[in-house]
Structures are given as C-alpha cells and as structure tokens.
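Sample entry (253 residues):
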Amino acid sequence: MDIRLESHSTLESPIHRWDPALKMVGFGLFILALAALLHVPTILAGMAASILLARAAGFSLTQVASRVKWIFLLLLPLYLLLPLRVTLGGDTPIVVGWSKEGLVLAGVISLRAMAIAVAIFPMWGTAPLHVSLRALSALGVPDVLVQLVLFTYRYLFVYFDQFHRMRLALAARGFSPGVDARSFRVYGSQVGMLLVTSYEQAERVLAAMKSRGYDGRIRTLETPKRELSDWGKLVLLAALSTLLVIGDRLWLG
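Predicted structure, serialized as tokens:
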C-alpha cells in the first residue's frame, strides 16, 4: 500500500483541477466544520460528504478504509477510558461503573476524527506536496512552518527506509528479535546509529541545498491561474460546511 499523501496527484478530477490555494481554504473550512459537529446524525452526514469527496478525487473505498482503520485503532482506548466512572466517598468503598454518556462521547470523537481523516485525502492527495505547500505559503503561512512540514514528510520516508535496511542487515547476521537484555541492547544501538546517520545526512543535505541557492522559499515552474470554476468550488464547499454546522446547532441542538 502506498502511504504517500500525494499518491493520487497524477489523476484527473475536478478536485485535481482546483486551484491549490483555494482548495486549501475550502477543505480547511470543511475540516473546521467537521471538528465543530456535536451530534451523530450530522457527523455521519459529514463523514458521507468526506467519502464522496475522496471518491471524486479517485480514492477507492478500500484505500480509504485501509488508512482510516489505523486512526480508529489509536482511538480504541477512548472506549475504555471515557465510559469508566469511578466514585470515591469518605468511608464508602470505591465504586466502578460504566456510563452510557461516556460511550456515546467516545463514538462521537471517533466518528469526527475519521471524517476529518478522510477529508485530508482529497485535500493533500490531489496535488504534489510541493505544490500544496507553495499554496500554503501563498496564503500567508510562515515559511518556517512550510519548510518544517516539507522536510519532516520527505525525510520520514528516508529514515523508514534506512531503518528497514538496518533490520535486514541484522537479520542477515542471524539476529533474532526478542524481549531479553541482549535484544534491547541491539535495539538501542540501532536507534543510536539511525540518529547519528540522520544527523550527518541532514548536514550534507543542508550544504547541498545552500550550494544550489536555496533561500527557504518553495518555487514551482507553473503559477496556477484561478478561474471562475475554482471560486465556485470554494463557494460550494463553504456552503456545505455552513449547512452542516447550522444543521448540527439548530435542527439537532
């Protein structure tokens, strides 16, 4: 499975043809609206809208489910912690119980998080990363933050690849992972070596970038031209976001 954010950037769809800066604004408003929803029906409607947008961008339901499931697994502890109710009182014993409200809250948080995660696919996956980051820079996001996102994302995969090669080298030397002291020493040495090589590589990359005139700004060969259809897409997504929030507050509140 390809986990790169821009894995679908070469496809064709109305979302792919959307001006990157306006797309960031539109999806940013949509994600803020999803985060503000409080009731299950409107959250489910927001989830359905996110899935439709992802499908319009070329993501299959299988691809969406295979990525979102990891977020759900991370949120599983909420279903144990939020419903838990502990009552303490003077001379009375500790009473442990479960609350329905806590379980509902865990479900609301999970649905909301997964709806936002699905919306990120068409937001970031329909254009090359440098184009999306250039759009953020054009919207006034500080260059330091843009560079931080760029290098963190790019070199995350580099370090994963280095870690994989180190594991293969250990396996070729007969290392069998376990939970004993020897295995933990090997793990520590592996992490330390990865940190040292990463630092040295970062120094080489910085020197190479400076020698090529890098000044902290992201430049692209093409300057997107905004058309009327781009503004129309922004209005539609902003209207959808507004309807979700109004429905959540007025009709269900």
